Amino acid sequence: MIEKNIQKYTFWLFVVTAIVILAGIGLRDPWPPDEPRFALMAKEMWDTGNWFFPHRGGEIYPDKPPMVMWMILLFYGLIGNLKIAFLLPSAILSLLTMWMTVDIAKRLWNPKIGLYAGFLLAITLHFILQAKSGQLDAPVAFWVMLGSYGLLRHLILGPAWKWYYLAFFAMGMGIITKGVGFLPVLMLFGLIIVSPKWHDKDNKQLLKWFAGIFFLLLAVCLWLIPMLIQVDNNPTPDVLAYRDNILLKQTVNRYAKSWAHLQPFYYYVLEVIPLFWLPLSLFIPWLIKPVKQAFKNKDARILYPLTMVVFVIFFFSLSKGKRAEYMLPILPMFVLMIAPYFEQLIQKKGLQRLLLAVVIVLSVLFSLIGFAGVFEFEKISHLTAKYFVNPWYWMASLGVFGLIVVAIFRKQAMKLYTIFMLGLWLSYGLWAAPMVDKAMSTQPMMVALAKVIPKDAELGLVGMREKLLLHTQWKTTHFGHHIPKAEQQQAGINWILDKPNRYLLVNSQYLNACFNEEISIDYDSFHKNKWLIFNSQDLDRSSCKTDDVNYASFSTQ
Question: Which structural domain, as residue segments, surrounds residue 540?
Fold first, then answer.
């Protein structure tokens, strides 16, 4: 009877989590910086039939393999709606990640622990945040979890060589999704602490262990070999640069000689995990004692996930380039460390006070900021006019909701936190995100531009961003993404002066003597402060040099 109740609770946990993740899909456009890029590349694959090498605005994109773009392309082909399709890979694969977390916890411990593991993952900020995004991180977390799942099935519940080899195949799939799919292999350092009970140290078994590398390479080669063949058959400068960039710069160089997102060594431990892993990060002080006991008992069910968490954090901390998303793939392993002790930990008064304090602080902040906007306090309400968005009623409502929940459930801290987060995510997806979309999407901007640009005109983009190409209503030419500023400016000048009925949309960072705010065309959008529109008739031609830059080599769609 108890087991049937646990199955029922687990079923409803998945239903509620799916509702939370899917709430709001189709109600917002892709948001910068990453989502418009991946959505645009999938759409171009569909429009052009060139699905092997990703392109954005006709320009090859050399930074990532096309795995996630293919997923978006699949859903776009099935549904025909990009606003839905770009979010489905993360949503579906996150639910599968959660299922694996529940299932492995159930197998390692019991169904109740499996339920706790799924619940803890579902209420963690980072998990839902990425499940509701259109980036690469939730898909790569799925492959990392499949690799971890297979290793745990083998190391603890094995021998299970098929699961071991599937784990390495999943790592290879993770590598061709976003480079870091190999992370589960760091779990094998746990063998130094505790060996599998079934382990036999003969040479035959040693070969079986190393055979996992073959399956990892097999998965990688499913994409790598066809890519290299196509490059060899048609070695244009673009595809050669794609090959070199994807194999070297975006892997070894990005880790060893990072050029972006530079952060200190302690970034993950002191800045990312405390915030993005809420509420799990609050459990850490009370988790130390049971983990020490697990070391004494050599409990592999705790030590293997712990090994992976520690080594992954250390691995990413060594690189100067750091992003919070890099911690997402090890979140399920941290959940597996907490779930077996959840019942006893949640009884700790200190932990209950922390959970209560988090909800109170968030509710008060949302209430204060929200009501300040509603009652038009100057420092807050001017943001409404600046961004054409009024989030204050949502923030005030969420804050009041949180305070009501605190008043009702103040003695049930975990239930209190869960209900508040449920309200936050549902209201975010169905209310806040569609409202904020007015500022994040360029569709309203293009609608405003349509009032000043004729339908039969041509549009040029200087300082191109992918989000602009998603909603352009005109034949559009852009002048490159990584092209030097001066070259883009000159190409834009030559382009607009070459033919009548052309308009140039210029990023404010790309203005020069030829383009200045006084001669720009006004349009009704807050984007006009960053994106200025010009036509050839109003330009001060005496200030526009016409150097020899061949704009015809740039991309038009």
Answer: 444-556
